[in-house]
Design the sequence.
């Protein structure tokens, strides 16, 4: 697809995105008890290690809600942290993983059937039926999109031409795609700029006290063949479908300053 056509498609979708702010479902999460996101107080280097002073101050959250578990080894631990400043949202995933696996190297491909870190963000505290999605595998291959829930009679609509620039780095403690040995795990850092969200209307600024909605996910693939993965999430998934894209399953985050 050439640049002009892609741009027209994105612009055309803005109308749909803005309308998504007017007809939305309730969130599961409560604004009264949001995840507190500390402001970074040190320079951030995105190298996959998350060893800056600011990361040491951030609270770690585990992904305790699992989907598609078939055996005990499918439940591997994940530690998630998040920070902010006026220009970026910073994300850290530290994942236990005995069998590190990734295949996809094409942007906007199926990274979600690899070992993969995902973040879905709604840059607003309002009831909205859309979110920005970022799904990264261990090659730092990106599947990024704008997801709109219940936009037409067929169901959901996904804008795949959304390809913003952001920083990602991975650190691997083991061997990728080699199940002859036991690995220890991997970690990933992301820095997503606030400018990545400027394509839609009422975007809440990155500032102290602001509230956004989000879902954080890990996809865990332990088998070299096939596409079976186990998903784990920061918030519980309700309903029969246990849909990670359903905004009723999202929680809230609030940007705060670090205490001195």
Sequence:
């Amino acid at each position: 697809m050439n640049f002009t056509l892609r741009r027209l498609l994105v612009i055309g979708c803005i109308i749909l995105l803005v309308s998504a702010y007017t007809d939305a479902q309730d969130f599961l999460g409560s604004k009264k008890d949001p995840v507190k996101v500390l402001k970074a107080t040190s320079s951030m280097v995105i190298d996959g290690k998350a060893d800056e002073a600011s990361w040491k101050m951030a609270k770690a959250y585990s992904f305790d809600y699992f989907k598609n578990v078939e055996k005990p080894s499918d439940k591997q631990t994940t530690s998630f942290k998040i920070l902010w400043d006026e220009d970026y949202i910073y994300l850290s995933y530290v994942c236990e993983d005995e069998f590190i696996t990734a295949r996809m190297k094409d942007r906007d491909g199926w990274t979600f059937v690899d070992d993969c870190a995902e973040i879905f963000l709604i840059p607003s505290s309002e009831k909205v039926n859309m979110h920005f999605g970022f799904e990264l595998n261990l090659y730092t291959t990106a599947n990024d999109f704008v997801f709109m829930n219940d936009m037409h009679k067929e169901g959901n609509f996904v804008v795949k031409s959304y390809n913003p620039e952001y920083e990602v780095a991975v650190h691997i403690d083991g061997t990728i795609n080699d199940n002859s040995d036991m690995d220890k795990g991997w970690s990933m850092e992301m820095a997503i700029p606030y400018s990545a969200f400027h394509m839609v209307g009422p975007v809440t600024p990155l500032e102290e006290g602001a509230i956004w909605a989000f879902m954080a996910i890990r996809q865990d693939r332990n088998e070299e063949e096939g596409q079976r993965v186990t998903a784990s999430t920061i918030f519980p998934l309700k309903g029969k479908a246990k849909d990670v894209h359903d905004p009723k399953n999202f929680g809230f985050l609030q940007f705060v300053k670090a205490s001195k």
